[in-house]
């Protein structure tokens, strides 16, 4: 008998963002409801508490834009922290940089990692077997609070949308801690939600980065199945190159390995702040 296909929608602000397919797993972890669906057109897709997180087909729009603007703008990076990122996509992109010796992946929900290894193999690929990747099941704020100053070259915040379990990592206090544990010439990079479907939190993140870091910039691109499609990533540093001047020596091979990101794509994406967001930021 053919598996029964259904629609699953993320419902946001009176709109529905739906994928059709069959459910592979739906369960409640101690932290959240986890659903993984084998979809008709997007490969396998992960939903947490009713919000789409990633899909085989579209994950590169998201993970390449989070990782490469930061890592390509440093000559070298050795230690990296990923807060969240339990699907493995961010770690996979970081591991393309040969100087990296340690990736601490700090995920609060171990069931997300276990299910991603089983059902989202395209995302983590071989990253899970790489000795440089250390998995730490821990609360993100607790991890950064217990880390010494200037320890990481790059901190990536690869979290889910604001919710009961993620709210404390959408805070000024958390971003300040991230800055403290990042080297002076390093970078803090975060997904910064959508200017269209989450404008308040989007502006709040940009404001916080501007308040904390000497240099900060936001880039815009698409993650087609997220609410409204348009998405953003924000980068902060005390001393860097505005993320527009690539420094990494093997940049060509990184470009060639990507499906979405390249230096021109990034250059345009950093110039795409919608006027309505620019105007709101001017008033603050
Ligand atoms: N609305 C979706 C926001 C998701 C951001 N994080 C996705 C995690 C992918 N590693």
In short:
The protein has 284 residues and is an alpha/beta fold. It folds into 2 domains: 6-53, Spermidine Synthase, Chain: A, domain 2, CATH 2.30.140; 59-282, Rossmann fold (3-Layer(aba) Sandwich), CATH 3.40.50.
Characterization of this structure:
The chain has helices at 59-71, 89-94, 110-119, 121-124, 140-145, 172-181, 199-212, 251-257, 263-269, 275-283, and strands at residues 6-12, 15-28, 33-39, 44-48, 51-55, 79-84, 102-107, 133-137, 152-158, 182-191, 215-222, 230-237. The chain has 10 helices and 12 strands. The longest helix is centred in the last third of the chain and has 14 residues, at 199-212. Strand 3 and strand 4 form a beta hairpin. It is an alpha/beta fold and 284 residues long. Helix content is 30%, strand content 31%. The model has no long low-confidence stretch (mean pLDDT 95). The strands form 2 sheets. Strands 8-7-6-9-10-12-11 form a 7-stranded mixed beta sheet, sandwiched between helices. It has a 5-stranded antiparallel beta sheet with strand order 1-2-3-4-5. Helix 6 (172-181) crosses helix 7. The chain has 2 domains: 6-53, Roll (Spermidine Synthase, Chain: A, domain 2); 59-282, Vaccinia Virus protein VP39 (Rossmann fold, 3-Layer(aba) Sandwich), CATH 3.40.50.150. It binds spermidine (SPD). The site of spermidine has 13 residues, from strand 5 and helix 2.
